[in-house]
Amino acid sequence: MSTQSLPGPPDIARTLRTRRGGAIPGLRYRQVAPADPVKAQEVDRGLEAWAHRLDLFPKAWSGDFSGFQFGRAVVLQHPRAADLERLTVAGKLLLAENLVDNVYCEEDEDRGGSRSGLGGRLILAQSALDPFHGPPGLQEQWLSGMQSDGPLRSYHWALKDYAVVATPSQTDRFLHDIARLHLGYLGEAAWGESRYMPQVWEYLVMRQFNNFRPCLSVVDAVDGYELPEAVYARPEIQRITALAGNATTLVNDLYSFTKELASDPTHLNLPMVIAANERRGLKAAYLKAVEIHNRIMETFEEESALLSATSPLVERYVQGLSDWVAGNHEWHATNSHRYHLPNYW
């Protein structure tokens, strides 16, 4: 693979004008009702108490918890949740995934993240979910190691709480999807270390792994039922699950575009990859990224509608996926603490 350089000068973010938040013009999405503020506050209260009890947050995270709006996120993403306990469990998983990503993966001296040595950190993180089995003495050392820092503690205890409300099959499904996520983290980190600019299709492959899929894989458990493993494993179900994950992950690329440019002008996202490969300006590349998202979203909607007609259980699962995608878009579009759009319209 040949190396290509990123477009534009290193200080490109300084010249990029931004506008206030709101939905991206021309983006395909389904509108949803605002999150119930009382329910969101209850989830936040439970999550904050849990996080402080486990001492999860580095000092550099001061203010990040309220700004992220975890409670509002999961209330929007799971509007048919069976109860508050399951919503809070979904919030714990979301919080843990973000903690691992930010503390282990992001290039940030204050938080300790680095591409260098990431594989070693992530294999231990995976074991916090997918436990080590060995001689009793070594298992005790592993268990002690799993309490050694915030990311490991968050994974370990979030999964324990998820396993209370989920079936063993649903829990195992989540473990596999987290392993996919970790593989995506490693792929992106490797490209960053070598300064490799992927082709557009290569970038989208990476984003199918470095992706919101673990959040989508819990929709049936949070809603209080199980899509049986034999149904979940069917290729057409796997395809719509992947399409949903890909669409909502590109939503993140588009809404976090200016935020990422400001913190790291070399950070990979779909508009930057399009700009480098097609020698486009950032505005043209961004608008093409919107088109790619829309094609994926349209395919998800069309194929999901056909599958929904095959059984009430599949219809319920498809609704959960669609709810998560729509709710997550609403969270991005209305979270002005984190996101501002480029002034491209």
Can you describe what's shown?
The chain has 345 residues and is mostly helical. It has 17 helices and two strands. It has helices at 37-53, 64-68, 70-77, 84-105, 118-129, 136-145, 150-165, 168-194, 200-209, 213-216, 219-222, 229-232, 235-255, 257-263, 270-278, 282-308, 312-334; strands spanning 18-19, 341-342. Strands 1-2 form a two-stranded antiparallel sheet. Helix 1 crosses helix 3 (70-77). The two termini are 36 Å apart.
Characteristics of this structure?
disordered N terminus; 345 residues; 66% helix; single chain; mainly alpha; 17 helices
Quick summary:
The chain has 17 helices and 2 strands. The protein has 345 residues and is mostly helical.
Largest sheet: 2 strands, antiparallel
What Rg, in angstroms, do the CA atoms define? 20 Å
Overall shape: it is globular
- Please provide the ordered H/E string of secondary-structure elements: EHHHHHHHHHHHHHHHHHE
| Helical run tally | 17
Span from first to last CA? Answer: 36 Å
* Mean pLDDT reading: 91
How many strand segments?
A: 2
- Structural class label: mainly alpha
Q: Uncertain runs with pLDDT below 50, 5 residues or more?
A: 1-15
* Strand proportion: under 5%
Layout of helices and strands, plus pairs?
Layout: E1 18-19, H1 37-53, H2 64-68, H3 70-77, H4 84-105, H5 118-129, H6 136-145, H7 150-165, H8 168-194, H9 200-209, H10 213-216, H11 219-222, H12 229-232, H13 235-255, H14 257-263, H15 270-278, H16 282-308, H17 312-334, E2 341-342
Antiparallel strand pairs: 1-2
Helix pairs in contact: 1-3, 1-4, 3-4, 3-17, 4-7, 5-7, 5-8, 8-9, 13-16, 13-17, 15-16, 16-17
